[in-house]
Amino acid sequence: MNPARITLLGGTGFIGRALSRRLLAAGSLVRVVSRHAETAADLPIGVSARSADVRDPRAVSAALVDSDAAVYLPGRVQGRRRSDFEEIHARAARTSAACARRAGVARFIYLSALGASPDASAWADQTKAEGELGVAHAFPGAVVVRPSLVFGAHDHFRSDMLGLMRRLPVLPVIGPGTRVQPLHIDDMVEALRLLLRGQKPRDNILQAAGPRVWRHIDLLAALRDRAEIRCRLLALPEWLALMLAVASRILPKSPLSPDQVRLMRSDKIADPENARLGDLGIVPRDPLA
Ligand SMILES: NC(=O)c1ccc[n+]([C@@H]2O[C@H](COP(=O)([O-])OP(=O)(O)OC[C@H]3O[C@@H](n4cnc5c(N)ncnc54)[C@H](OP(=O)(O)O)[C@@H]3O)[C@@H](O)[C@H]2O)c1
Description:
This protein has 289 residues and is α/β, with parallel strands linked by helices. The chain has helices at 14-25, 57-64, 82-102, 123-138, 157-167, 185-196, 216-226, 238-247, 258-263, and strands at 5-9, 29-34, 48-51, 69-72, 107-111, 143-147, 150-151, 170-174, 179-180, 183-184, 205-208, 214-215, 232-236, 275-276.
């Protein structure tokens, strides 16, 4: 049986909206929570929206009242200091898990990322690993989900890259040889639905990855060719990418941070030792189709 009342912290983003639609269709009551949820445009019909900042434990506790299950979705890829990532990926995740436990929520899921590790180069990956530990401590039995890149309508990576390739004659590629394993949003939300229904992956960690491992630059070339765009891809050495990221700090809204460059040092692919979508009975579909 699906839990009746599900709260999605960070539920107005890309994965949260798709998950809301899936859960509503399965008959659940869905509450989405984010800083601007009450004024967010085009939320799925039927969700209830509540504005709250996950950094505020009182607001999170109030948002979790009467919930059977909760999913923690807030995350960031941009930040100037380690603490920018730490507060969302680790501190607020841990306190949200503790609030959920106190509120009697039966299931808690934390959205991490493939690549999360205390030894990772990027703050984003380091603090996701901290978040995983903190959540497991605050909410025994919580499930961690580590996605690779997720593709679907209104996604981030694919839409952004296609937009850039349409505008630029040459696209510099950071981490051209980094391996990624993109998955389809429908598989992502089906996995989350099954976990919310009570399926447990081995060690309470699920890796969400698609059917094929790609080198970053080959994936971009495939996306470009399928969209029939003319744009050259130029592999950028990391030192040059870092220099550009540092230089772009003078811009009011920097398009690239050093941490994003470091994020591309490590592969974002599933480890055969840990649970994957197949363990939930999901056969991952081609996310590029
Ligand atoms: N999409 C992917 O390809 C991908 C891949 C790997 C891992 N992940 C992880 O999966 C999670 C969800 O990804 P996504 O693509 O759905 O992200 P997203 O589109 O950026 O959505 C993030 C959500 O969190 C909310 N949020 C951010 N800061 C908040 C705060 N302080 N308090 C309350 N809400 C806050 C945002 O709304 P407001 O800004 O309005 O508050 C938004 O609803 C993230 O943790 C991400 O790291 C995603």
